[in-house]
Structures are given as structure tokens and as C-alpha cells.
């Protein structure tokens, strides 16, 4: 079986040249699948691996828009519809200058397994653009969103493909995207996009869900060793949607969150991050995190460095891919790190993951730990389909139940396959098996 896996992996690498992050994501999943294929040769016979690595559809389009000075700008838009065996394609849109096909494909590939783990009826996809919202006025971002949707609208739909947010795409952008969809199609089709505002078809808890879910997963993982967040020293990378809500939930569980970051540097606040100031700086005024240190006495800012310089017992990477490398991991382990739970997608490099696992650090991969966001998107779709709106308490309870089930499914699968505590193995195998079985049932499509 190892030979089969290597053969398919070689094909995938050769057929998708230069897509470094996609190669990384596929390699990491394949490293877990040997024992599953041993037990299930039918997957090999039906070329499930080959099909899983080839997106069902890839759309690349021009996004023209006019900036505030009247200059015409061109960006590239993407939507990769990866796998719809379990439901309509589902996954976020990322607006960031680093976006190219390899990033969208790694995210879409991960999304397939993540969405499978949620237990909800959603397939996997991802999209975005190399548009850089930083330094752009609200008017420019709105015009960009409208132009982006003017092409995207023909590819999406409640039963086809349901986008949401990711880096650079939050509630504001979802509003502008949905507004344009509604205008073009003349349909108030709430289920076409998630992350909507709660007064116009959104779900309570969706904004908080990824960060909250990551911490709830970590809490359950810590409990397997008799540990809890109470009194735990925590650091978080990023200071966007996922990071802010991870900080909020960790603090609610008694953690001492001492540092967070952005792409320019990090802040340390030994008294504990003041969320009110952080939100004002990042969400309301959209300023760099350095401004937090300027407004908070006792806090200090370190430019051009990673937050992993700060000692922690629990590290929550909530910014971007490959942001915690082997050197960071070694430093943290030497300083007493107990657990890592990924709010971001693929933030820990393969070398760092290996190092954490061999040091006995609890490690939760993003496709399991950050699945609360997309799971709550599926709850939003459920509310849209029934024209209902649930309370915060009820929705959060549903999220907590889903995170507990994902945790236990990963833990039990790892145990079943002879490597208890290996959440990477558990998540990859459990996520894969459900999609693979659905693909077998649906025939060669
Ligand atoms: P936001 O845009 O709200 O925040 C992103 C944060 O990460 C910002 O602090 C940003 O800093 C930082 N960041 C972005 N790119 C880089 C980079 N190249 N290097 C260093 N820092 C960077 O995005 P989200 O919080 O929504 O997303 C964060 C992560 O969580 C992503 O990996 C995303 O895929 C993942 N995720 C998001 C979900 C969601 O529901 N939103 C669901 C599941 C996973 P700056 O402002 O300086 O750019
Ligand atoms: O990476 C992710 O899971 C997301 N950005 C959320 C996707 C969604 O459809 O809610």
C-alpha cells in the first residue's frame, strides 16, 4: 500500500508543479493513510486517492476594479470546487496578496477532510484573490467585492457551492458580496453564503465559532492528561477573527493569555491581553497590533518577530500557514510547552509537527481544531433552510457538542489504528474514511 501511496503522491506533485502548499497538505494526509488502505483495498481499486487530489472544478477569473484615484486595477480570482461527495462545496474566500492557485488548493484539500469531520452534509472548496485589502478604503474594498461576485455568482448556490470568509474576508465583505449576488440574481437566497450579519440571515455564534471551537477542542484534549485552561499561560498568533475569539474563550476558561500578533510583529502583556482595547484597535480602527502596546501600559511591542519568542504552556496559532517552524517548536518545547491547537490552517510546518509529537506535546491539527467555524456555517445553512434563527446559547451548545464529537472521533480513530494521542492520524483517517465511502457509493463521478 505504501507503494500505491507513493505512486499517487508522485503523480500529484508532477501534475501540480510549483504548488508548494498543496504538495505539503497532500503529503501530510497521505502519510496517515497507509493502514486505512491496507484494511480497505476497495479505495485503491476505485482510484479514490487520485480522484480526491484532483478538484472537481477549478475556476480562475479576472477581477477588474477602479481605485479611489481612478486607476483601473486587475486582480485574479479563484474558486476551487474540490469535492462534493458529502454535500455542496463549502469553504471560505481569502483576500491576501500571497494567494495563488497552490494556496487555494491546499486550503480546499484540507477543507474536504475538515468538513467531513464536522459530521455535517458539506463538501469542500475554497476561493479568494491576490487582492490586498490593507490600506484600501472601504469604497475600494466594496467595489472589489462587487466585481469579484459579478463573476463568482454564476458558479455558486445553496445546493452547489457556498462560500464564507477567511483571511481578509469578514462580516463586512460578506455583506458586500451577498448584496451583489442578490442584485445580480434578483434572489434573496440566504443559503448561498455564510457568515452573514445576524439581522439579515446570519447565525449567532458564527463570528466567534472558529476561535471558540479551537479552544473547546484544546480544552478536551488537555483533559485527556488531567489538565485544564485554568491558570494556563497561553500565547496566540494573529489578532484577527479567529485569534480574538480564541483569546476570549481561553480567558473565559481561566487562561492567562499574555501575547498575540499580526504580520508585522507581536505584543506581550504580562497582565493579560485586554480584549476591549485589542478589539478597538484591530476590529474597529483596523490598525496594526503595535497600537495595542501604545494604548496599554505595561504591554510592549516587538517588531518583525514571531510571537513564539514568548514562553507558553499552550500555543494557539491563529494567523496563517507555516507560521510556526521547527526552531519555534524547539524553543517552546524547551520552555515547557504542553499543547498546540491550530486555529489557522496548516500553521505548523511538518518539521515542527514531528518535533512536537516526539516531545510528547499535545498537538491538534487545524482540520480538526478549527472545524468549529465551518460547522457553524453549516448550522447557519440549516437555519436559512428552515427560515429559523436560534439563540446564542442553543447555537453555542451545538458547537460545543460538535467539537467534542470531533475530538473524540479523532482520539478513538488514533487508538483504533494503534497510535493513541496522535490527533494527526486520527483526523486524517476519520476525515478520509467518510469522504471515501461516499465517493464509492456515488460511483465513478
Ligand atoms: P483575519 O483576516 O481576521 O486575521 C488574520 C490574522 O493573521 C491577522 O492578524 C493578520 O495580520 C495575520 N496574518 C495574515 N497573514 C499573515 C502572514 N502572511 N504572516 C503573518 N500574519 C499573518 O483572518 P481569520 O482570523 O479569519 O483567519 C486566520 C486563520 O484562521 C487563517 O489561517 C484561516 O484560514 C483560518 N481559519 C479561519 C476561519 C474563519 O472562520 N474565519 C475558519 C477556520 C480557519 P495582518 O492584519 O497584519 O495581516
Ligand atoms: O477554513 C475554514 O474552515 C473557513 N475559512 C471557514 C469556511 C466556512 O465555510 O465557514
Automatic annotation (TrEMBL):
InterPro entries assigned to the protein according to its UniProt record, in alphabetical order: Aminoacid_DH-like_N_sf, Glu/Leu/Phe/Val/Trp_DH, Glu/Leu/Phe/Val/Trp_DH_C, Glu/Leu/Phe/Val/Trp_DH_dimer, Glu_DH, Glu_Leu_Phe_Val_DH, NAD(P)-bd_dom_sf, NAD_bind_Glu_DH
Keyword Oxidoreductase: yes
Keyword Isomerase belongs to the record: no
UniProtKB keywords: Oxidoreductase
Alphabetized GO MF terms: glutamate dehydrogenase (NADP+) activity
One Pfam family from the record: ELFV_dehydrog
Domain of life: Bacteria
Complex formation: Homohexamer.
Record-given protein name: Glutamate dehydrogenase
Organism: Cellulomonas avistercoris
